[in-house]
Specification:
There is one protein chain. This protein is an alpha+beta fold. The chain has 2 domains: 1-50; 58-190. Helices cover 46% and strands 17% of the residues. Strand 4 (86-90) and strand 5 form a beta hairpin. The chain is elongated. It binds iron/sulfur cluster. Iron/sulfur cluster binds at residues 173, 175, 179-180, 183, 185-186, 189, 191-192. The site of iron/sulfur cluster has 10 residues, from helix 4.
Length: 214
């Protein structure tokens, strides 16, 4: 009788130990899963931050991503084409993003590029983006470029100028004195700009003044 009781208690202890081992294994598995998921989420957050994207935007396309391929817009009607580096949705609008990793300055040509994307998105997606983003430099500084009427009018003036040159009008050079001063062919160039006398504004500065405020 005593032996039977001892065997029963021993069996019970074995069962408890076996159950405990299973529970411990399950707990370890759960902790490992949580750690893996957390690491994936952290990586995704770092990638989004590196691209200059905020948490409140959902990504639609990214250059280099297989699952979110780029959208290539070609408009015969407007005579424009473009492929934004990324597209995100913010507040119900499709927002284009242009990445310039080697530049820290907002340049007119970058703004013009974004404005073209915004025109194309309006035509192909049916909704006018209120703004786009430039992501500049290694630190991914994000600049919001408003899609204003003033800027679109400036873009139109550039497009009109290009179209008139394509039709045979003479192209006007707009050299910048600072660039010309470092140019290796300046001695042989008839378009070079000389530094403006002190107090006088250069032709490039006058042209810049005609552009919309960035
Ligand atoms: S010198 Fe002539 S080629 Fe060189 S940057 Fe100026 S305009 Fe251009």
């Amino acid at each position: 009788m005593r032996d039977a009781a001892a065997n029963y208690i021993l069996g019970l202890i074995h069962e408890i130990v076996a159950v405990d081992s299973t529970l411990i294994l399950l707990a370890v598995l759960v902790v490992m899963c949580v750690m893996v998921l957390d690491s994936i989420a952290s990586h995704a957050r770092r990638v989004r931050e590196a691209a200059g994207l905020s948490r409140r935007s959902s990504t639609i396309s990214v250059d280099g991503a297989r699952s979110l391929p780029l959208r290539n817009y070609v408009s015969d009607m407007q005579g424009l084409a473009g492929r934004p580096d990324a597209l995100v949705i913010e507040n119900g609008y499709l927002i284009p993003i242009e990445r310039k990793p080697t530049s820290n300055k907002v340049r007119d040509r970058y703004v013009a590029q974004l404005l073209v994307y915004m025109r194309l998105i309006e035509e192909f997606e049916g909704k006018k983006p209120p703004y786009g983003y430039l992501i500049l430099g290694a630190n991914c500084r994000r600049i919001k470029i408003e899609n204003s009427e003033e800027r679109q009018a400036w873009l139109q003036s550039l497009i009109d100028e290009m179209n008139s040159i394509l039709k045979g009008a003479a192209a006007k050079a707009s050299p910048h004195p600072r660039k010309c001063s470092k140019c290796p062919v300046k001695e042989h160039c008839s378009f070079k700009a000389l530094p403006a006398p002190r107090g006088a504004s250069s032709s490039a500065a006058k042209r810049k003044a005609a552009l919309p405020v960035l």
